Amino acid sequence: GAFTAGGANNDKASIVDIGADFNATSKVLLTASLIHARYHFVGANRNGKLTELLAGVQYALSRRTTLYSTLGTQGAADMYNPGAGGGAPGVDNRISFLAAGIRHKF
Known about the structure:
Layout: E1 10-23, E2 28-41, E3 48-60, E4 65-77, E5 94-104
Antiparallel strand pairs: 1-2, 2-3, 3-4, 4-5
């Protein structure tokens, strides 16, 4: 579709992704990430912008099993938000999400 990241009229993208992990204890890992992207669209007056902010925590139950949780928000301007369905560029342009689970390494 048009006006989406990787869409039919998206001919250029500039993306910056910065993240950090911090071991609060031997069992607790705190994570954070900021992703900012600018997209150029053929035939558009303005560049689209997409920003995502994530924060997470992981708790090691054992060497192979970890509980995790991630909280995030994603906003788009002058383009479709790939995380939100429907609407038009700029409509439904901000979403927030929470993910949690258990990871086991085999």
